[in-house]
Amino acid sequence: MTSAPDAGEVRAEVRGWLAANWDPALSLREWRERLADSGWACPSWPREWCGRDLPAGLAAVVAEEISRAGAVSTPDGVGMQMAAPTILEHGPEELRRKFIRPTVTGEITWCQLFSEPGAGSDLAGLTTRATRDAEGAGGWVVSGQKVWNTSAHHADFALLLARTDFGAPKHRGITYFVLPMHQPGVEVRPLRQMNGYASFNEVFMEQARIPAGHVIGEVGGGWKAGLTTLAHERRLATRRPPAVAQPTDGLALREAAAEAAEAYAPYVWYPQRAGRPDLVAERAVEAGTAADPLIRQEVVKVISLAWTARWTAQRAAVARAAGRPPGPEGSLGKLASSNIARAAARAHALITGPAGLLAGPDSPHHGIISEIMLSVPAVSIAGGTDQIQRTIIGERILGFPRDPGPDRDTPFRDIPRATDR
Predict the structure, then answer these.
(1) Which residues make beta-bridge pairs with 131?
(2) Which CATH architecture fits 269-396?
């Protein structure tokens, strides 16, 4: 049994490989094919899936070297952050062969179809129905509605939870599918938000087809695989989208910039959703209110919350570096982000006063303050509500008894729902 290489060895090896192989004149697809073949695309993944079987902690070393060389890495977003890790963990092999590599190279894109109008926090109450396709050689037919779906308007495939057994208890009658998005029977409509953006979609499925073999995990066992995706989503939900540079030299760089601009377009308001804690001290000075004792207390509260959340994130990063999968610490980070956003919005309101409600280029901070006020409520909902995160923390970290769940073992068809009243 050989020991894992240390960080210095990995750094030297990937640096040498980049020096010999990184060529910005390549197309983005050609470069990512080369990166996938080398295993440096996803170094902590198995070798057969574009990786090198390295400890998770060394993946950060590889990422640093790719960035230092000015090279392009794998695509960001749902595909690499949720779809590929879930398929890797829950399979089956056929789906790994079909989807892992094209996701790594950016050949295909993904969205997530989980939440429904009547099944948000209570996701297991979903009613989108999938039945066996009598005409499709073992495939499935799905009908229903999903909401809050980022990038559904251009995604090639969707991670879909649908109910396949209405006679089973609600957590045990759900199956996890890969749904082809470009087909008759799938309609995507934009959702207009109160802050003026349309970052999300609602997706209507009417007799849409799912091929045989497009099941992640077991039929009726989709809840377990879904929890894996949700754990990865909570990490993604707390991230701030990076600034997208616009390089002029190198085809791979130009194509990567265009890809990132499209991928991050729905998230341009996410810094405001997070409350912009980075602005509170600066705004207090600009507004001449930094000497106000109440405002000073609120500003310090925001900064304190932000620093403690950063330390929690660092502990989670250490856990991942040790090879542990995402766990309940993701809920701590998600709940912390809600607390920071609300505290920052409150501080901005005190600093700016009623003028903070004004929008447009002549309003305080060019309209950013009003955008914060309208956007912050979303952070307590997206990726799992604050109440759900507190339940996870209570049960999985503090060891509290599980919620009673009186309908936990009741056949889903027998559970009263709002639509029945």
Answers:
(1) 141
(2) Up-down Bundle (1.20)
Tens of pLDDT, residues 315-342:
777 776 676 766 677 788 889 999 999 9
Structure-token pair, residue 24:
């910005």
Structure tokens at 19: 């020096």
More confident residue, 346 or 414: 346
**58 neighbors 10 (Cβ within 8 angstroms):** yes
The model's pTM is 0.85
Tokens coding 359: 């929008």
Query: What's the CATH fold of domain 110-237?
Result: Butyryl-CoA Dehydrogenase, subunit A; domain 2 (2.40.110)
Tell me which residue of 245, 311, 252, 300 sits closest to 277, measured CA to CA. Answer: 300
CA distance linking residue 189 with residue 362, whole number of Å: 33
**223 closest CA partner among 255, 187, 175, 189:** 175
Q: Look at the domain 8-75+91-105 and name its fold.
A: Butyryl-Coa Dehydrogenase, subunit A; domain 1 (1.10.540)
- 352, amino acid identity: T
Signed CA dihedral, 227, 98, 54, 312: sign only: negative
Structure tokens at 20: 């010999």
- State the DSSP string of 276-338: -GGGHHHHHHHTT-TT-HHHHHHHHHHHHHHHHHHHHHHHHHHHHHTTPPP-THHHHHHHHHH
Residue 189 tokens read as 């409509």
